[in-house]
Design a protein that fits this description.
Length: 327
């Protein structure tokens, strides 16, 4: 179907990041603050029926890709059931999941069977004590989760590493070797000032241009392409299968090719990760609007998609945490 969701800057919106919960079983230093309790109450969570209805309208409007995220999506019960429901919707041809892998050991196979095609896993350190410091979690569980995902047939798995100066920047080469050995794709991400945790993390900002320089002194990097619908710029390490993506929202923003919006678990449609613009879909949905009205609401929302984020010029602008919008 032709894409009927085009924003005022000519960008076709074909990708929704769907946050199914703002809760998480980890506490990464740059994301949810430790001790944070102000989570969305269950009455406000979109039910699976409500999610299915909204996504079916997006599918009719030309959205093809859905990434399930959070918070940690796997802390919400019965995610494979939701996946199955979304995978049978008209127009939706690509269903993927972002996870910290803590619960993948138990769920990888059910997720694959239900229709998840691609998995991204966040992994900032391969050292158990450091992993615990950054995330408050258990590295072993994550490694077992990754193994289970491989066994279930996910390939390649994309590893996302947020690079932080003085925290894990000495592990860049180790992560490269780990991903070569395991057959994963590796993506480096710059810290973003989202919420006050993200603000503090930008004190540890480490430019990915420097990461690339470091890698070039050790490996031969060849330009590469990889489809995933996202903003990463890819290289391949010569004589290996490893592809490395650089996601540089700070040093080289990619807003001009932005193709996505984010639906939060309480039914707010966020139009840009780095702005506060949003439209409430939950209230009208629960007031009984029909599909035609829902379509119009979404089309009108896209007409207000901001041109770009202002992380560099207005770093304190986005007060919600990444987990609230769906990272
Ligand atoms: N729980 C899932 C996971 O771990 O991938 C999905 C949600 S998590 C919010 C999505 C991604 O956002 C993770 O890769 C995380 O590292 C990243 N993230 C969260 N806060 C960030 C920040 N302030 N700057 C850069 N990346 C951030």
């Amino acid at each position: 179907m032709t894409n009927t969701l085009t924003d005022p800057f000519g960008r076709a919106i074909e990708y929704v990041r769907l946050s199914v919960t703002d809760r998480c079983d980890l506490r990464c230093v740059y994301c949810i603050p430790r001790g944070y309790k102000d989570f969305v109450e269950p009455e406000a969570w979109l039910s699976f029926d409500e999610i299915e209805r909204i996504i079916s309208v997006f599918g009719r409007l030309g959205v093809k890709r859905i990434r399930i995220t959070g918070g940690e999506p796997l802390v919400r019960h019965n995610i494979p059931e939701l996946v199955q429901r979304l995978s049978s919707l008209d127009g939706i041809s690509d269903l993927s999941l972002s996870t910290n892998a803590v619960q993948l050991g138990k769920q990888a196979s059910a997720l694959k069977q239900a229709g998840i095609q691609r998995i991204n896993v966040s992994l900032d350190s391969l050292q158990a004590d450091r992993f615990k410091k950054i995330t408050s979690g258990n590295l072993d569980k994550v490694l077992k989760g990754l193994e289970a995902a491989k066994q279930a047939g996910f390939s390649p798995i994309k590893i996302n590493m947020v690079v932080m100066k003085g925290i894990n920047d000495d592990e860049i080469e180790d992560m490269v070797e780990f991903c070569i050995k395991e057959g994963h794709t590796l993506r480096f991400i710059e810290t973003m000032p989202v919420g006050n945790t993200g603000d503090k993390a930008t004190d540890h900002y480490y430019s990915l241009a420097k990461v690339k320089e470091r890698l070039e002194s050790r490996y031969e990097l060849l330009p590469s392409s990889l489809s995933g619908g996202g903003p990463a710029r890819y290289y391949q390490i010569a004589r290996t299968d490893l592809r490395i993506g650089f996601i540089t929202p700070m040093s080289q923003h990619f807003c001009e090719t932005c193709n996505r919006v984010r639906l939060s678990n309480d039914g707010m449609l966020y139009l840009c990760l780095g702005q506060n613009d949003m439209v409430d879909l939950r209230t009208p949905l629960r007031a009984g609007i029909n599909d035609e009205q829902l379509e119009k609401l979404i089309i009108d929302a896209i007409a207000h998609k901001p041109e770009r984020h202002e992380f560099n010029t207005q770093p304190g602008h986005v007060v919600r945490f990444m987990s609230q919008t769906g990272g």
